[in-house]
Amino acid sequence: MLTKEYIKELKNNGNGAIGQLIKNYQNSGSLTFILExxxxxxxxxxxxxxxxxxxxxxxxxxxxxxxTIGKLGNEEYLPLLKQTALxxxxxxxxxxxxxxxxxxxxxxxxxxxxxxxxxxDPKIVCQAIRGLLLFKGDSQVDASLKSLLNHxxxxxxxxxxxxxxxEQKDKKAxxxxxxxxxxxxxxxxADTIETMKLLKDESIHLTFTSPPYYNxxxxxxxxxxxxxxxxxxxxxxxxxxITKEGRFLVLNTSPIIIPRISRAHSSKRYPIPFDIHPYxxxxxxxxxxxxxxxxxxxxxxxxxxxxxxxxKPLAYKPNSVTEYLMVYRKSTDKLLDWNIRQYDWQxxxxxxVPEGYETTNVWKIDPCFDKVHSAxxxxxxxxxxxxxxxxxxxxVFDPFAGSGTVGKxxxxxxxxxxxxxxxxxxxxxxxxxxxKEMFDKIETKYLTLEEFKETIK
Length: 457
Description:
The chain is an alpha/beta fold. The model has no long low-confidence stretch (mean pLDDT 88). The chain has helices at residues 4-13, 17-24, 28-36, 50-53, 59-72, 78-87, 91-104, 107-116, 122-132, 139-146, 154-165, 192-196, 225-242, 272-283, 305-310, 336-341, 345-350, 379-389, 405-412, 424-432, 449-455, and strands at 186-189, 204-209, 243-253, 256-258, 268-270, 285-294, 322-330, 362-364, 395-398, 416-420, 445-448. The protein contains 21 helices and eleven strands.
């Protein structure tokens, strides 16, 4: 009977015992089981049966054959590994062959890996890069790798940029977990772009906002949809600059309908979240997630009424019960773990998300309605975003503050907030809702742009 113990016993016996076992078991499952359970190999292990397995029709068998050859570390197998790396039909087998070449750390292997950099499969190229980085500092290797900075594939470019071209941070710069006191719990009544230009690089930890819709209701009027998108792009370019490395932007948007002028004309529907996305990617935001905010159907405008009367094809217009929360992260070569490690143990523990958190990307939350502001963030929506994407003591920013729900919620969750709001009516509304009980440590400041400038001198 074929067991792990039996395989181990034969392996240690030597004299080609495993090779003989392979001859007795030719079905794919048995071959895989044998190879998978070989474990660490003795120095005198006879691997002469392995090359034949590289022609097996089953890719899993070929994969484990390559893994076994890699364990042997024998340079004599380099031509065979090269052949497999370049020509096998399965990407995983090819990657394992490249990995085996890299682990040998030989001059000949280095030459083969350099040749593999020209492969059409970016996964294979990345594996070759990984092997060549073991020789980082060698002038020829460095030159070959640096030339990939303009590679067609974004993952290849990212790895090369991180290894050779990433800027070193100024050690005197502000610590990652901190921010400037003049930004803590501040509301500025001014244009957000003009205000942000006063801020230093990497000042905030999280931005959560819902930008004004394009020429809808009481919001600002833009000369064209293109001008509207370019305005938002300018805003989020500044947000990118002032955001800490690797931290998040959460953008709440939805398609918007501009009503028709008359029955002789059609209404126009603009897909704002999809159209702003390319701008954000271009300026250095990395797309992370799309979260759907679902509202009760009774809370939204009825678009289906006409269709319900006649049910004629082409006229179907469903009620829009969803908005998008598009989650982006400021591009960085550092992993999320690096961000987390910047905080002390107690802060990480205190910031852990409580039980009952949402496990899907569909959030069912009732909307809020307000007589002053027509599109108020529900507190529950703000609460989730702030808890999921920031730590206690972080600075949360909303460039389009509206009724100020982001600031109020951030403070209640142990974060600081910085808000900008151009509309004086909304600014006064936020100010009227001030709660002394909430701001006992750092009192909220309500400032004009000129007053704000004075605080940062």
